[in-house]
Amino acid sequence: MQHIHNRLVRLESFLLPQVPEPPLLGYNNRESLYSWQPQLSSPPPFLWNEEVTTNGAQSFLTALAKSIFHSDNIKVTEDDICDAYFRHINKWLPIISQKKFYAQLASDRPMNRRPETELLLMCMYLMVRDPSGLDPSEEKHYKSVRLAYCMLQAESTDLLQLAQSGLILATYEHASGHVEQAYSTIWTCVQMMHSLRLEDKLQTRKDSNHDKQTECAEAYALWWSILIRDR
Questions:
Q1: Which site among 26, 68, 89, 107 is 20 to 30 Å from 19 CA-CA?
Q2: What does the buried/exposed string (b/e) look like for 177-196 if buried means 16 or more CB atoms within 10 Å of the residue's CB?
Q3: CA-CA distance, 123 to 224, in Å (whole number)?
Q4: 91-125: per-residue pLDDT in tens?
Q5: What angle do CA 88, 78, 198 make, to 5 degrees?
Q6: pTM across the whole model
């Protein structure tokens, strides 16, 4: 048994990755063991920004909006994004009430805007960009928007607006060649669709007020758009 054990130990020494041993502590070496870390052979696939974890999604989206609107290469405003989206994209993807969205932008100050509204605006921005004039470095904006979307899934309570953002983001990903990401994003929209029980909001009473009718119309459009995009 001792012989077999020795052979297993030798076999494991060949299979396990070689990690340098921590420095020995002695009278002339005051370095703590806790300060020693093995060197990684390659960096992680995605580097999480420390500022994101401390400030939250709202601060991250505010900084992203500033970087877009103050970029010399883009030169776009919120009005440009909304005008282009509702003039072109909303005709074949009518999931957002134009009147309701403009009212939200008018009521919220840019510095105190709800992160769900800010994310929706950033997703709309991705859809209205001109593909022929894109700067390769602007791919970072897409990655930042997707990161903010993933963050809000854990923090947001407004799943309806988050699902709208997810559907627009999945449409952009599918059109721009990010197929695997599009599958992942649309699946989260399907989950939110069932969590919101959108099927219960598809029927509108005649005596309902205008806000209720608008909410039901958005839910109806979002329900079918998610089903079609998923398929």
A1: 26
A2: ebeebbeebbebbeebbeeb
A3: 19
A4: 999 999 999 999 888 887 666 788 899 999 999 99
A5: 60
A6: 0.71
